[in-house]
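Possible regression after last week's pipeline update?

I re-ran a chain I had predicted before the update to compare outputs. Posting the input and the new output here so someone can diff against the archived version. Not blocking, just want to make sure nothing changed silently.
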Amino acid sequence: MSVAFKASCPDCRARFELDAGALRLAIGGSRRTTFYSFTCPECAAPVRKPAGERIVELLTGGGVSTLRSV
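New output (post-update):
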C-alpha cells in the first residue's frame, strides 16, 4: 500500500497528492535547516517548506527519503 501526501504549490496554487518518492526531507540541527521539498507537478516550480516534528514523523513514517545534515 502506498502513502499519498497532500501538498500545494505556493507559485501556481495547485493542490495535489504526491507519493513518497516525489518528496525529499532534510533534517538539520535547527528549524531553519529542517524542511521538505518537491517539484510541483503542475508548474514544475521547486517547492521548499519547513517541517516541524509532526511533519517529520509523518514523512519518515510514510517512506520519504531523508537526508540528515549536521
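Follow-up from reviewer: compared with the archived run. The two ends are 33 Å apart (CA to CA). Marking as no regression found.
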